[in-house]
Every structure is written in structure tokens, then in C-alpha cells.
Design brief:
It contains nine helices and eight strands. It is α/β, with parallel strands linked by helices and about 220 residues long. The strands form two sheets. A six-stranded mixed beta sheet has the order 1-3-2-4-7-8, sandwiched between helices. The chain has a two-stranded antiparallel ribbon with strand order 5-6. A hairpin with a 2-residue loop joins strand 5 and strand 6 (about 80). Helix 6 packs across helix 8 (about 185-200) and helix 7 (about 175-180) packs across helix 8. The protein is globular and about 50 Å long.
Length: about 220
């Protein structure tokens, strides 16, 4: 775990006013994480940035660490699905907004992030100005997504857990990896898949993903 702290410098008052108290950055690429934390510090967007490389370390810090008021979460973490952290935040007294950062920025990925309930999405290819806009927008209580700011409210007749399974299925995860990512048994994953297939009237994984995308669920 690495902590980057901010000391008042020469950035604008607007940034200081909008600064988050503490940001938790979850990314398994140390150089990228350190560079992003440094940029957040330079722009005075947060008073403190804590970086961790795994979902377990993130969950541990969120439960036992001092209050975090923003999570920047990599979509893919060394074989783990970053989105699987979102359901684990439900038990927190104060749930911080989560912004997904990803090298994949296609429409289906952004839609999956919005469906999962994230507060925003930022492509890893984005520049300094986009980072500032995103953090200021989320700080104001707004979302930040390509093409719009509002988080998507899914109309899919699925439970939150089924939507998580569907999202991982769309990313090409086999059952075993879905089990590992969500902490579920293989039987439970198969039960969820059966329910999803029934809802969609499909018979295999490819039909399922194609149908879900056509309906705007992904």
C-alpha cells in the first residue's frame, strides 16, 4: 500500500475547494498507479491518495481504514473483475462513489460499468483535463461518463448479482473465473446463468450476450 499526501501548493482555489479528503486508488500496475496518484496530488484534487493492487487489499482498507470518499478502481485486476468490489461496499456505513478506470473504452464496457452502479468511468488514455473534470463532477455529486453524466438505472429484470454474472459473462469469463471473482460456488453461478438465459429466452452464452446487448443491458 502506498500513500500520497497533499500539501497546499500553487494550484487554483477551485481545486482546493473541490478536493476529496481521501481517494483509494485500486490498480495492479504500480507505475500507472503512482503516476495517477502524483497527478491527483499535483492538481490538488485530493488531500490523500492511497494505492493498493488487489480487491482484497481495497476491501480491507475500506472496512478498517480511515474514511475514503472516492474509489478509483481498475476494471481488470490481474484476473479479477474490478466490478465485483461494488457489491462488497453495500455493508459500509458510508459508501464512497466508485469511478472505474480502464484501458477498454468501448460502448459495451462503459454500459456495463454504468449498469453495475459506478459513479463514473475514465479511460486510461484520458488526459489531465479529463481527470480534473471527472473528479470535480463526482465531487459535486454528479456522475461522469462518456456521452453523459448520469449513472444508468438498469431496467433489466435481473437481481444485482445476476447483472454482475452477466457483466462478467460478457467479458468472456468462464464459470470458474466468475466463481472466483464473485466469491460464489459453481452451482450458484450456474443457477444465475440459468435464470438469465430464461429471462432472455436464449440457449447459450453467445446468444445471451448478444441479446443482452441488443436490449441495452450491457
Amino acid at each position: 500500500m502506498h500513500v500520497t499526501s497533499l500539501r497546499h501548493g500553487s494550484s487554483s482555489a477551485e481545486h482546493r475547494i473541490a478536493a476529496f479528503e481521501k481517494v483509494l486508488l485500486v490498480d495492479d500496475h504500480a507505475l500507472f498507479a503512482q503516476a495517477l496518484a502524483g497527478l491527483i496530488r499535483q492538481e490538488e484534487l485530493a488531500l490523500s491518495v492511497v494505492t493498493v493492487g488487489t480487491l482484497e487489499a481495497a476491501a480491507e482498507h475500506l472496512v478498517h481504514g480511515a474514511g475514503v470518499d472516492l474509489v478509483l478502481l481498475d476494471l481488470a485486476l490481474n484476473g479479477e473483475a474490478g466490478l465485483s468490489l461494488l457489491p462488497r461496499l453495500a455493508g459500509l456505513k458510508n459508501t464512497p462513489p466508485v469511478v472505474i478506470i480502464s484501458s477498454s473504452e468501448d460502448e459495451s464496457t462503459v454500459r456495463a460499468v454504468r449498469t453495475a452502479g459506478a459513479a463514473g468511468f475514465l479511460a486510461k488514455s484520458a488526459g489531465r483535463a479529463a481527470l480534473v473534470r471527472m473528479m470535480q463532477s463526482v465531487r459535486r455529486g454528479q456522475g461522469y461518463f462518456p456521452g453523459g453524466t448520469a449513472p444508468l438505472v438498469s431496467e433489466a429484470p435481473l437481481t444485482p448479482r445476476q447483472l454482475e454474472v452477466l457483466t462478467l459473462l460478457a467479458q468472456g469469463f468462464p464459470n470458474k473465473r466468475i466463481c472466483q471473482s464473485l466469491g460464489l460456488t459453481e452451482h450458484t453461478v450456474k443457477t444465475h446463468l440459468k435464470a438469465i438465459f430464461t429471462h432472455l429466452g436464449v440457449h447459450n452464452r453467445t446468444e445471451c450476450v448478444n441479446r443482452a446487448r441488443a436490449l441495452g443491458w450491457l
